[in-house]
Known about the structure:
The chain is of the alpha+beta class. Helix content is 53%, strand content 11%. The chain has 3 domains: 2-66, no CATH class; 81-249, no CATH class; 286-400. The protein has helices at 2-6, 11-21, 27-46, 81-87, 98-109, 114-134, 139-147, 156-169, 184-189, 194-201, 207-224, 232-248, 251-260, 268-273, 276-279, 286-305, 309-315, 322-335, 383-389; strands at residues 50-54, 62-66, 351-355, 359-368, 371-382, 394-400. It starts with a helix and ends with a strand.
Amino acid sequence: MILSVLSRGERGCSAMKALVRDSHESLARKKELRRESLSLIRSLYEASVLELVPKAEARPGKTLAIHADLQIDFSLNQALSLFVVEGIRALSLDASDYALDVLTFVESTCEDPDVVLMKQLDKLKSRRMAEMKGDGVEYDERIAELDKMEGPKPKKELVYEQFNLFRAKEPWVGQKNVHPKSVARQMVEECFSFGEYVRELELQRSERVLLRYLSEVYRAMVQTVPAWAKTESVRDVEEYLRVIVQGTDASLLDEWERMRNPAAVVAPSAADERTEEAARDITRDKRAFTVLVRNECFRLVRALARGQYDAASELLDGTRSAPWLQGALRAYFEAHSFLRTDADARAVSTTMLQEEERVWRVQQVLLDDDGPTDCALHITIDLEKSRDAGRVIMVLYRVEVPSP
Length: 404
């Protein structure tokens, strides 16, 4: 609200004072609101969300305004959104998992999707129970171990450390707290589609909860993360979430997009002329399609790394059989004991795209413990077939494994 009021220009500060003065609160409450407002404005200024600018028409003095380096629709949607702006300053923009860590800071300020988090923990407990049972651990010890478990909270030490520093200098935070979690991050890290993640956690009765949460995280990524922090990898994460939400239920984002940019709304006459086929053309948005291609290539690598050759064959629409894939990867695993599927393996540099008129050619570099290898998957993406199918159609035509 403070940002909305201050965005009115020179009248912003006066409007903020008038808003508190004319409210129907008691005098004691008005004093409290004035203190909170000043504290928040000071915090926004120190975080470079606000800046002092000269008043218009050569008038003496300066006034507060939203910082010019921030995106036009910058917004602090959550109570702790300012913590995201402050907290991500502790991250290194050059780190391989920088974009995922930014996503973690955003997720920590979003409302918990309780049913999803419970399913996550149940999945981890089931896996751990099976491991301990196989190791011969006594039942009572197993239960005690499971009681100590919690859901995935990547970078929780860093998040809590930064939040404690933030709260120490921001008295308005009060009893508010962050909640580190990994729902959107897990989907991005492991390249899950919406349907795959629902099946993975058995969320068939809670799909709307997951979808609303992902929509909330996407909007926070777009409007809360300042422009200076948005590397290409962060924008790719944004695009990944947008494609997931838009592809599952476009209505969740369409109205929001219209509110963000009314000038971009298509006139009714032009909209009527758009065919249904053009509307679902996944190749029209080059950036979104690039994210889809990279995701599908990584899903293929992940299936091969896990020895799931039947799943890999399905990703290739059966154009390569499971036995063929197993044979093609044999030389790789004879020379390398491990095929990585971590953040480095998902880096943009490992997926090299060559765009042609009708096809995209992809060279997907494979990584082992020592980093990138000389081995690669050579894939073609048929644009026309992808348009017709509404999904990425891949053909793996060669597995490159140099002779020792």
